[in-house]
Amino acid sequence: METFALRNADGVTVRFIAYGGSIVSLEVPDRDGRIADVVLGYDSLDGYIGDRHYMGPLIGRYANRIARGRFTLDGRVHALTVNDGANHLHGGRRGFHKVPWDVTPFEDGGVTGAVLSYTSVTGDEGYPGTLAVSVVYTLTEASELILDYAAITDEPTPVNLTQHAYFNLAGHDAGDVLGHELTIAAARFTPVDAGLIPTGELRDVSGTPFDFRSPRLVGASLGTADEQLRIGKGYDHNFVLDRGGTDDAVEFAARLYEPRGGRMLEIYTTEPGMQLYSGGGLAGVVGKHGCVYGASAGIALETQHFPDSPNQPAFPSTILRSGEGFTSRTVYRFSVS
Q: Would you state the pLDDT for residue 111?
């Protein structure tokens, strides 16, 4: 498969493909300078075409779930593809993760990047309006992978975009991430029903397994008798990020740290939420170099608006209208400690 590569002087290399805009490898050094690929993935294009776990692609038109695959917009009911039980997930069967993107690489003052573009026509997976989307991947000399999202539409439509890389900072083939330390800047999360649809409540994390305001091992509470963890087969929940600035301010969202090698990932975003998925649905997935990924082999930290927002009036709106422009930025900053 044809890959595009972004590199910096510190040994960070990001490789991605046009199909799904999928990040297929992300090599970063540990505290001793040893390089490892820290994202899960596949060896071949066929692996990504057949993928059911969203290994590294761009997600849209709507990241996460929409209940029953239906929403009402300006008095009209829209029916979407149902591909997750009774619900619509990650844009449907042929969401942005299952299409080829146009890729235009660039280099500017030592900064390397690429513009990925795709146009989703009206009716795709049931969505109204033609949506033109661009995502810019930029790798800086400060070891930041920056994702700049933009979209315009000719009719009102929901828009919620994210990137679905699974991280294992010890290396994609190093086992599980249960010993990683995770911090999330969120005092609330959105609990879900049996179908993983938010109930509408914004629940305080205090005294629950969802309190990551101070560093906490990913696996510290897995296996406990918590109803939300049972429903999600671990963590598969949206966190309401503590934001103190304006809507377009890039603010700290999360920190993931692997203590053995010292690799650290910090995430900053303009988005109001972040989905934590601890990989409970991974089991027996054959990945790169024949590695078999089991449960919690990687962790997804998906910056986003909230799930099911088109059906939840109290949630931040995800409706983009003609004449408006959607923009969003997420920064993945890699370092060692």
A: 86
pTM (2 decimals)? 0.97
DSSP assignment string, 125-136: GG--S-EEEEEE
Catalytic site residue from 164, 172, 237, 305: 164
- Cβ contact 238:190 at 8 Å: yes
Sign of the Cα torsion 276, 278, 281, 284 reads positive
Question: Looking at residues 308-325, what average pLDDT do you find?
Answer: 97
Would you state the pLDDT for residue 223? 85
Catalytic residue among 181, 258, 271, 302: 302
DSSP 8-state class, residue 310: G
Q: Are 303 and 330 in contact (CB under 8 A)?
A: yes
* Integer CA distances (angstroms), 23 to 80, 112, 288, 295, 306, in order: 27, 15, 13, 20, 23
CA atoms 124, 126, 128, 132: torsion sign: negative
Alpha-carbon gap, residue 26 to 171, rounded angstroms? 10
Distance in angstroms (rounded) separating the CA atoms of residues 182 and 222: 14
Are the beta carbons of 40 and 166 closer than 8 angstroms?
Answer: yes
The CA-atom distances, in angstroms, between 275 and each of 28, 40, 272, 306 are 23, 17, 11, 8
Side chain identity, residue 51:
D
Residue 263 pLDDT grade (very low, low, confident, very high; cuts 50, 70, 90) = very high
pLDDT, the chain, mean: 97
Return the amino acid letter for 171.
G
How far is it, in rounded angstroms, from Cα 190 to Cα 276?
11
Q: What structural domains and CATH numbers belong to the chain? A: 4-336 (2.70.98.10)
Specify whether the CB–CB gap between 80 and 92 falls below 8 A. Answer: yes
pLDDT at residue 248 in the model: 85
How far lies 253's CA from each of 105, 185, 331, in Å? 28, 5, 10
Given a contact cutoff of 8 angstroms between Cβ atoms, the answer to whether 274 and 332 are in contact is: no
Residue 164 annotated to the active site:
yes
